[in-house]
């Protein structure tokens, strides 16, 4: 087999066989096939696409390119959850202790924030002492005993994806649905859970800008999950405005704790309850959404989910007292109000809010940069809320006054205000369970 011929085949619209895809993935991971040939192939895929069989073959070859986690010693059905990324998305922090309290263990590999999107690992590191570098034994022990473990991606989990993703990033070949779907699913399949629930975001703060594209990506990932014999469900949720009120790291952790205390914002709770339903469904704990919602609300109201969250923080070396006293978490000293003109909020541009948080120091431009966990933006007014000129629409939390002032004007610009109240919109657009 020659890489040259395979590039030519895809360039001409041909279909690559399972063996050919395996040859490419193995050859690239081992260094035998150079970057320039794989770049050419990726670009050909961007123009010609890949069919269902090719996408599944690529996913499985990337899954098998490194270690796969064996969670079989944990008896219950383990369900993983993945979000395609967004602004203010603290859903995992709220959801995992809820489902763990309901008997669904979560063994999760999470990422750090990149660009305008946040990452669960960064948020958890707001707890002094918290570690996500868990040895496999400790990871499995925590899932067995507490029902939750969240670790950073290990170096040898789907290494082919790691290498391919880095190449796609610099060759303008990221935004191809089959490549995105296989990249995400290869890592999820290597992580060893029995079922996968996907939160596919759509809107200006997400990868997929419109509903149709998000639905296409969600369906593709659900088909891959089925092809790999894993129960896989997906929800398509809104990312045209940030999720909840808080954007940043510490500030989002505080909002997640408030949600676990029963005071979560309505859009966040709608997403949490929907994904919670899908996770409980995948674990055979419920057959309908109504029962799931009731169970989820019960573990919040009883305090069981919050207690589980504190146990999880402690089990990973974090200071669990901060769960009950959030003043112990690092929040920036400058709190600057943002004002807008009278009317109703029509839009809060999620991407612009995410970028502003990054400029405050709360996000990273490259995977290597360090970030400031204490900065952020609190959006008091969300889409549909009435605005008075003497009442702040948001607050900026900054460590330097000048950066804060700059962020205030950017946050004000991210708001669109108009005289009419916009029609109400759900935070969840669709679920795919078939
Ligand atoms: N996230 C991934 O892991 N891979 C992609 O290709 C896009 C988003």
Tell me what the structure shows.
- The protein contains 17 helices and 13 strands.
- With 434 residues, it is α/β, with parallel strands linked by helices.
- The strands form 4 sheets. Strands 1-4-5-13 form a 4-stranded mixed beta sheet, with helices on both faces.
- β4, α10 and β5 form a beta-alpha-beta unit.
- It is globular and about 70 Å long.
- The relative contact order is 0.14.
- The model has no long low-confidence stretch (mean pLDDT 95).
Q: List SSEs in N-to-C order.
A: HHHHEHEHHEHHEHEEHHHHHEEHEEEHEE
Q: Which cofactors or ions or other ligands sit in this model?
A: uracil
Distance between the termini: 38 Å
Specify the structural class: alpha/beta
- Biggest beta sheet attributes: 4 strands, mixed
What gyration radius follows from the Cα positions, in whole Å? 22 Å
Estimate the strand proportion.
5-15%
Task: Estimate the mean pLDDT confidence.
Answer: 95
Q: Which consecutive residue ranges, at least 5 long each, have pLDDT under 50?
A: none
Helix content: 40-55%
| General form | globular
Q: Helical stretch count?
A: 17
* Strand arrangement across the biggest beta sheet: 1-4-5-13
> How many beta strands in the DSSP annotation?
13
Topology at a glance:
Layout: H1 3-11, H2 18-30, H3 35-48, H4 52-63, E1 79-83, H5 91-101, E2 106-110, H6 120-124, H7 136-145, E3 148-152, H8 159-170, H9 177-190, E4 195-202, H10 211-227, E5 231-238, E6 246-248, H11 250-260, H12 266-282, H13 289-301, H14 304-315, H15 321-324, E7 334-338, E8 343-348, H16 350-362, E9 376-379, E10 386-387, E11 394-398, H17 401-414, E12 415-418, E13 428-432
Parallel strand pairs: 1-4, 2-3, 4-5
Antiparallel strand pairs: 5-13, 6-9, 7-11, 8-10, 8-12, 9-11
Bound molecules: uracil.
Uracil binds at residues 165, 174, 179-180, 183-184.
């Amino acid at each position: 087999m020659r890489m040259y011929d395979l590039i030519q085949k895809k360039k001409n619209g041909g279909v690559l066989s399972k063996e050919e895809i395996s040859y490419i993935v193995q050859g690239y991971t081992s260094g035998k096939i150079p970057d320039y040939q794989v770049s050419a192939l990726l670009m050909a895929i961007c123009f010609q696409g890949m069919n269902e069989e090719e996408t599944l073959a690529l996913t499985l070859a990337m899954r098998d390119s490194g270690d796969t986690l064996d969670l079989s010693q944990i008896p219950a059905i383990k369900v993983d959850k993945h979000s395609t990324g967004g602004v203010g998305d603290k859903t995992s922090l709220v959801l995992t202790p809820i489902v763990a309290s309901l008997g669904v263990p979560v063994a999760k590999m999470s990422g750090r924030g990149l660009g305008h999107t946040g990452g669960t690992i960064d948020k958890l590191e707001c707890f002094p002492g918290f570690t996500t570098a868990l040895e496999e034994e400790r990871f499995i022990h925590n899932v067995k005993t507490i029902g939750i473990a969240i670790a950073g991606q290990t170096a040898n989990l789907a290494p082919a994806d790691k290498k391919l993703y880095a190449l796609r990033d610099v060759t303008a070949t990221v935004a191809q649905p089959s490549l995105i779907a296989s990249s995400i699913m290869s890592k999820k399949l290597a992580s060893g859970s029995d079922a996968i629930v996907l939160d596919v975001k759509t809107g200006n703060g997400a990868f997929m800008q419109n509903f149709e594209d998000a639905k296409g990506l969600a369906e593709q990932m659900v088909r891959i999950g089925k092809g790999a014999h894993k129960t896989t469900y997906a929800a398509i949720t809104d990312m045209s405005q940030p999720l909840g009120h808080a954007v940043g790291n510490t500030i989002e952790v505080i909002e997640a704790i408030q949600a676990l205390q029963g005071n979560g914002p309505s859009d966040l709770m709608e997403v949490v309850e929907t994904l919670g339903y899908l996770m409980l469904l995948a674990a055979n704990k419920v057959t309908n959404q109504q029962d799931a919602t009731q169970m989820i609300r019960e573990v919040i109201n009883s305090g069981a989910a919050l207690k589980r969250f504190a146990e999880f923080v402690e089990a990973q070396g974090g200071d669990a007292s901060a769960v009950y006293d959030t003043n112990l978490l690092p929040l920036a000293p400058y709190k600057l109000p943002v004002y807008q003109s009278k009317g109703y909020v029509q839009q809060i541009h999620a991407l612009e809010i995410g970028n502003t948080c990054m400029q405050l120091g709360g996000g990273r431009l490259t995977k290597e940069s360090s970030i400031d966990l204490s900065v952020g933006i609190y959006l008091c007014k969300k889409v549909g809320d009435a605005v008075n000129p003497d009442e702040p629409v948001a607050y900026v939390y900054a460590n330097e006054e000048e950066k804060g002032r700059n962020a205030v004007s950017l946050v004000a610009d991210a708001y669109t205000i108009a005289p009419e109240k916009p029609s109400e919109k759900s935070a969840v657009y669709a679920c795919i369970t078939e």
